Amino acid sequence: MWEKILTKIDELHSLDKQNQVFGAALHKYKCNPRLSPVDLQIIENRLGVTLPTQLRSFYLEIGNGGVGPHYGLSPAENVTNYRAAIDYPGIDAFKTDVKTDPENLNGNCIEVDHDELTGLIAVIQEGCGHEICLIASGPKAGNIVTISCDDLLYESEITLIDVYQHWLDSEIEVFQFVKELLGSEMTLTEIADAVRERFGRHDTRDIVVSIIDSKKPKALFGSGNHRIYHGATQLPWYESEFQKYKRAQKLPGKSWWKLGN
């Protein structure tokens, strides 16, 4: 079930050598040890529901959480439970609720108080209170529902594997694009501009140093929860590592300062 996903995880990890993808510094593309069927059954008994098939498969065959989008897949014992044993009613039920403000109706997105939620388990933390949930019970079990800290709910028809697929395909595409441009005569600034124009990303320099496997010095960038953000001192380091890589690979290159950048 997860074979293709695992192959793509290995591919992204081989590109992102310094774990610069958001959340990768935490999970490092690894999984926790697999759950035993007995341990999983204990967790399901506590939740009062059998976990969706794809999630069960991950916990039993791949690992008890770890590598994944955003902050990774939560261990089974840490999933947030929104009254999982009670069927999720579907977004249409919320839309017909007389308490719902018509101005909040917008396709598959609606404002719903968290206290009204049922049938959901939060399996991936996006940060800032935003969660990717799975419908745990009801006719749409296994589908993704995203909820935000400000009570917005988005219902979809995609599954957990689809979430992983989109995350991996998106990141691999960006990394492969940057890797290809590294072999050109473009400056680091020109590469960053090209990535921003095509993908709307502003982390090109981090992607570059991860591809070429240059470790950021703690004195310059900090570490853990104590990160340093100071472009004036950090940009020259990125440029220096870029030029070292060009010379080592005997690739054509132009220095940003020679171009007046």
From TrEMBL:
Species in which this protein is naturally found: Paraherbaspirillum soli
Pfam families on file: SMI1_KNR4
Name of the featured protein: SMI1/KNR4 family protein
Gene3D superfamilies tied to this protein: SMI1/KNR4-like (3.40.1580.10)
Domain Knr4/Smi1-like, first and last residues per copy: 34-170
SMART domains in the record: SMI1_KNR4 (SM00860)
